[in-house]
Amino acid sequence: MDISERRKAHPEHWMKAAALRVLAMDAVQAANSGHPGMPMGMADVATVLFEKHLKFDASTPDWADRDRFVLSAGHGSMLLYGLLYLTGYPEMTLEQIKNFRQLGSITAGHPEYGHAPGIETTTGPLGQGISNAVGMAMAEASMAARFGRKVVDHYTYVIAGDGCLMEGISHEAIGLAGRQKLGKLIVFWDNNGISIDGEVSKADVTDQIARFKASGWDTASIDGHDPEAIDAAITAAKKTRKPTLIACKTHIGYGSPKKQDSAGAHGSPLGAEEIATVREIYGWSHEAFDIPAEILKAWRTIGSRGLGTRAAWEAELSGLSATKRAEFERVISGAVPKRLSATIKALKKQISEEKPNIATRKSSENALAAINPVMGETIGGSADLTGSNNTLTKDLGTFEPENRKGRYVYYGIREHGMAAAMNGLAVHGGCVPYGGTFLTFSDYARGAMRLSALMGIRVVYVMTHDSIGLGEDGPTHQPVEHLAALRAIPNMHVFRPADAVETAEVWELALTMQDAPSVLSLTRQNLPTLRTEHKNNNLSARGAYVMAEAEGKRQAILLATGSEVEIAMQAREMLQAEGIGTRVVSMPCWELFEAQDEAWRKKVLPAGPVRVGIEAGLRFGWDKWLSGERGLDRKAGFVGMEGFGASGPAPELYKHFGITPEATVARVKALL
Ligand SMILES: Cc1ncc(C[n+]2csc(CCOP(=O)(O)OP(=O)(O)O)c2C)c(N)n1
Ligand SMILES: [Mg+2]
């Protein structure tokens, strides 16, 4: 069917979809940058979805029970901005559309979470959106089990491109979704056969339908420009108990004589002349950014279609018992329960009395055993290392199709998919995800971890086996550059607790700080309890603090994190015995220390003494604390790794690589 026939067959639909197409063409042209091809190709699918199926109310974008819509093919951002503007999301004004991709506008190059209501997650790095959506659908299922279908009953829709499906992360995501039978997850694949380098077939001949089927999905193949076929496919997909892939055969740059079906439509303006031609083909006679009243009205009617449903939903919410309703509102707001603080204090007190000699991964499990019963919104999990990451606590139950009340997810060996799903759980709201793997495999999750930080969302990465201290598994498994690499991500809190007390403290911080993700770097090897005197205050909250003060004249400061604080304490004993006054500073979180005022930082790191940093990782980044912050190059030293580790028992490795109290003492003395 050519365009003139399509226009005749569905004139009203055509004009609504044309509005989306024209806005995309014009905004990209005005910005002289952007991606018109994808919105022009997927406008029909988006129009039918919003008009006939999506449950939303543009006037109340944060309605907790709205359907989620994820534009995984984030380069097509103008499709999303156009939808939000046309349906009447208050913040998405025509002014913002005109300022597409300009500094300070909410219409960024790729959709950014937090810029405007209606942008459910940040997309652009291909494959992330579809993988976030898996987490959103999991959150929906979990919330429904906890609060009932009367208040939680929504779908998650995704538009994904060839790129999203080619990315490895999609394989992890669809495997997880298939296993979890996420029947309310519906993915539209913009099957246009084109990516930046030209025909997709140059690089990929995967039978996507067969791949999704093999992963436990339902599938459908439709003409992505036929509104009736789109409607029928969505109606069918909503009924099944499996997630559904709807392969939509489309034309990139639909209607552009020069660019349709070519990579030329992907990521550059069509040009004024071509745009004029396309307008004619569309039957669109209006100026740029001029949406005729009648068409805008039709779109606004779509935007307010959900008003009644939302009002009814609010009545349902009021019908919940007071306790349940308060709990629902609390978890949606993201606030931690009041009991959390007292729970952590009690745990800390118990630890300082019992003084266990345990790995911080075990301390983390103990902290979770206290936290999980008071925080019904935690959703734990691990990428097939449950017994090693110590992420499972009693009574969580397994999250699975037969038990949506379960709060523990077996993510499988899918670090990246796990991290992206956790992002989805977090942005959905009502869930606080944490998930484990070995610290060294943070590399495999990093793409999604960076987005947790960029979005500023509460996701807790439980990363155990955090140094050569893991021993015999050797250098493939021993992180050396990872702490530096994670600290390099803005807005990521990297916690490396020194003992069981600090571990309890950093868990409290990770759960309380709603606007940043956290990495908990935890040991495999046992560590003594260093904080033997109970303090109600969360000392880790300031990032670094004096763990042991110098006796006599303060000549040295040892700065250490995690397992190396014990080494610092032993080195201090030896130095004090020789009359060298030595302070030990524990630094469980650089980022929080950085955020303290100068007075605190100066108190912890005064000018003058020799400073030696101790961490079983690379020095990269440490000089900020050693020679910066009132320190001096000639008085700064570091005890740590200089390259990859080795396979062997942990105590021997520490000796072999010279991360010992003796080496620390020698370093201090050489600098005095
Ligand atoms: C992880 C990642 N790699 C590369 C890119 C750069 N990139 C943006 S769009 C694109 C091609 C996507 O092709 P497709 O999904 O088919 O989109 P279409 O051209 O059909 O709009 C690429 C490689 C990216 N955004 N993310
Ligand atoms: Mg494509």
Instruction: Give a list of the ligands.
Output: thiamine diphosphate, magnesium ion
Largest sheet at a glance? 6 strands, parallel
Percent of residues in β-strands: 5-15%
The radius of gyration over CA amounts to 28 Å
Across the major sheet, the strand order is: 10-9-11-12-14-13
Kindly state the number of beta strands: 20
Catalogue the unreliable spans: none
Helix content range: 40-55%
The helix-and-strand class reads: alpha/beta
Describe this structure in words.
This protein is an alpha/beta fold and 672 residues long. 44% of the residues lie in helices and 14% in strands. It has 27 helices and 20 strands. Helix 2 (11-31) packs across helix 3, helix 3 runs parallel beside helix 4 (77-87) and helix 15 (339-354) runs antiparallel to helix 16 (360-374). It is elongated. The termini are far apart. The model has no long low-confidence stretch (mean pLDDT 98). The structure holds thiamine diphosphate and magnesium ion (MG). Magnesium ion is lined by residues 161-162, 190, 192, 194-195.
